[in-house]
Amino acid sequence: MHSHDGKLYASNVMTKHTFISPARRALNPILSDDPMIDLEGASVDVFYTPASQWIAHQMGMIVAAAAGVCLLIAWTLGQTGGPQPLAWLFTFLAFAIAGVPALETVWSKLRTLRIDIDLLMLLGAVLAAYIGSPFEGALLLFLFALSGGLEGFALRRTQTAIVALRDLAPKQATRIDGDSTARVPLRQIPIGALILVRPGEKVPLDGAIEAGASSLDESAITGESIPRDCAVGDTVLAGTHNLNGRLEVRVTKLAADTTLARIVHLVTEARHHPARAQRLIDRIGPTYSVVVILTSIVVGLASAWVFGVASQEAVRRGIAVLIVASPCALIIATPVAYLAAIAAAARRGVLVKGGAHLEVVARAAAVAFDKTGTLTTGHVRLTDVDVRDGIGESEALRFAGAIEGSSTHPLAEAVNRAMKEQALTPAGVTDYRSTPGEGAEAKIDGRSVWIGRPESVGLHSPNAGQDAAGRAERFRRAGKTASAMVIDGTVTFLAFEDTVRDQAAVCIQRLRGQGIRWIEMLTGDHEIVAEKVAAKLQLDGYLAALAPEDKLNAVEKLRAKYGAVVLVGDGINDAPALAHADVGIAMGARGADVAMEAADIVLMKDRIEDVAWLHRHARRTAGIVRQNLTLAIAVIGVLSVVAAMGSIPLPVAVVGHEGSTVVVALNALRLLRTARNSAP
Description:
Blueprint: E1 2-4, E2 7-9, E3 19-20, E4 36-39, E5 42-45, H1 50-57, H2 59-79, H3 84-110, H4 117-130, H5 134-158, H6 160-166, E6 172-177, E7 180-185, E8 194-197, E9 207-211, E10 214-217, H7 219-222, E11 228-230, E12 235-236, E13 241-242, E14 247-251, H8 259-268, H9 276-305, H10 311-324, H11 328-333, H12 335-348, E15 350-352, H13 355-363, E16 366-370, H14 371-375, E17 376-386, H15 393-404, H16 410-421, E18 429-435, E19 439-444, E20 447-452, H17 457-460, H18 465-477, E21 481-487, E22 490-500, H19 504-513, E23 518-522, H20 527-537, E24 541-543, H21 548-562, E25 565-569, H22 575-580, E26 583-587, H23 593-598, E27 601-603, H24 609-644, H25 650-668
Parallel strand pairs: 16-23, 16-25, 23-24, 25-26, 26-27
Antiparallel strand pairs: 1-2, 2-3, 4-5, 6-7, 6-8, 8-14, 9-12, 9-14, 10-11, 10-13, 15-27, 17-22, 18-19, 19-20, 20-21, 21-22
């Protein structure tokens, strides 16, 4: 929204009547996506009662309904032989009710030398009244207001997901200060503050749990229907629902920087990136409007001077051309469809920053995936415990857990997870010593235990020999990471692997079935691991050991060969390539902030299969846009020719033109029927 000369303009709402006069200002809460509206450089809180909100949301339909009632009364009086002055009065009222908002809009645009369809419609209505057909003029304005109201309804439907997200987080939080608590507005809570989240409450800010345990319903943020168990050390997101435990949370992000705030920002910014067809229409719109006005004048003059048509009929033909050639349906064909598609994607947990990105996804021929955290889970898992000389797997795991218990290294965390899954408890440790870059050793249950890099085994087990080297090489060739453990001279190996996502193969198959010609993996991991993952997923190609700048070059090569390229990634190292690709898709609500900002689309569910769903959704959207554009152009072309020949009555021209606008809007709304958890 912006202001000029004390008036508000709803630049972010694509309706026909975007100028908002001071008198109507209080009735337009939907003009801004933020409850803080910047007016004349000052931020002010705006509050609306439910009644005023309803009136504001329905204003377009209210105007159309009032004009329609007046027209119906005027038509009834004319058909039943009622008082003619009364019929004229209701016709005038309909003209005024529907025409004043249009006049207000046209005047505001003419002051800045802008000409568009509002002027065309107003000219058509006024000229119709001038030649003695005021009812047809009022009918045109009524249908114009009605189609505008229906467009507004369609756009508000597309904003439902945004409004619901914005309202997820509470406006206040319970701050803990020593032994006391107090309810405090979110804007007054700094990073590092401790807040209390009681059972049944929503988490107000992003943070980390310092005390307590609970289950969190994160479906509103990530779309995941199964609640997530959380305890001390786990992260929590603003807008999630605390189901059953008391949590003390240390705030890690300010209210404006939470994951929820970023989601709202990403979705609301989407309308600032229109699709290519929409940009073209917006660019030629003013020129087209001038051409239509000149064409209608030429048709009227040619009908009278060349074909000898009576002057009144010639004017009627010119007015009919002016009406039917107005690009109402053409203008809304693209934006309403893409906004509906963006809203449907948001309900599924796929945040699209603009219709232009959906358009590119629909025509992309190549998709590149990062490996770690994208095609794989990003969580290392213990896959093998290779023991010798009577040492049991459980015993070896207990010893490893004893040494690695306090480490935050991913391999140590994988050991701890494996112990928890097997309900094992670590053994007691004494004489613990750690050597950076090599490993750690200790006395455990009276036995000497060392764990570390396989290359250092010989320092702790001189007799290990070729057997240990061969075992380590076997794991390396399998694409796994190995740690060696020496227990009283006996060598044991622990093997770890970042597992492929369960749905990754299904996603790849669906993308191929939907027309993607080349699917490649770009990873910084070493060649053997990359080869194994690529073979398992049957990818068309892969590139390994890539630095961030190497991924940029790889994307450029794919673009040169296949055209538009979609890149899917999740980490900080993917951010440059995500920004460079034609469309960058970031994985997960807990992905790197910089990756989410660099990407054009964010998959909040962290589900790889949503890439295939998104491609199918984008293609469906492109199909509906093509249907809308074809219908709009066909209606304009056919009706323009018929109107120029004088073969169409003015009321039929009005209904045919505005009817196509309504059909286009309703066709676009079909995209909102996308189910929340529908399969790709």
